[in-house]
Amino acid sequence: MHEECGIFGIYNHRQAARLTYLGLYALQHRGQESAGIVSSDGFNVATHRGMGLVDKVFNNDVLRSLPGRLAIGHNRYSTMGSASLANTQPLLVSFFGKGIALSHNGNLINAQELREELESGGSIFQSTMDTEIIVHLLTKFAKSLGKRQALLEALRRVKGAYSLLLLSDHELIGARGPQGFRPLVLGRLGKSFLLASETCA
């Protein structure tokens, strides 16, 4: 069964990467093409991504190399872009000197139009997935609006069904499309907060 990707995020847990791994494992039915996790210790971000199933991409040594109390993860089932490591999420980029990561589930129906507009304005894309369009829009608007307002403006520009997680060095932001076609549930584990594609995570 393919459901167009699974996303999972956790805020404020000492084993954030391990719980993200477990969340992705529970969401494996949503995508078997590739998996990835990005974590943050409040100063730096670390990542590991690979092709295949969650239990083949991650092991204990890899999970120990992903420190921090924040993490997001992604299982990919491609609907846009080829099956390659370059298109594996979370997408980690440098954003005004700091790392940010984005996990996205859904389809942007105006992706080609936005991509052409951004490329004509000088944007250079590193992948063929529509997730990267959101990152370029975020960068474009952040110059004048700041990160949170820029994300809101970027999401106003995209059309389609989506849910997404954005991780920076010290925060986790979740969003979904206005119609709510792509699920994003919020949960709590003690003093930690979780976001996921399904409650099974």
What does this structure look like?
28% of the residues lie in helices and 33% in strands. Helix 5 (131-145) packs across helix 6. It has a domain at 6-105 and 161-196: Aminohydrolase, N-terminal nucleophile (Ntn) domain (Glutamine Phosphoribosylpyrophosphate, subunit 1, domain 1, 4-Layer Sandwich), CATH 3.60.20.10. A 6-stranded antiparallel β-sheet has the order 3-2-4-1-10-9. Strands 5-6-7-8 form a 4-stranded antiparallel β-sheet, covered by helices on one side. By secondary structure, it is α+β, with helices and mostly antiparallel strands.
Brief account:
With 201 residues, this protein is an alpha+beta fold.
Indicate the proportion of strand residues: 25-35%
Largest sheet: 6 strands, antiparallel
Helix content: 25-40%
- Terminal-residue CA separation: 16 Å
**Helix run count:** 6
Helix and strand composition category: alpha+beta
CATH topology of the domain at 6-105 and 161-196: Glutamine Phosphoribosylpyrophosphate, subunit 1, domain 1
User: How do the helices and strands follow one another from N- to C-terminus?
Assistant: EHEEHHEEEHHHEEEE
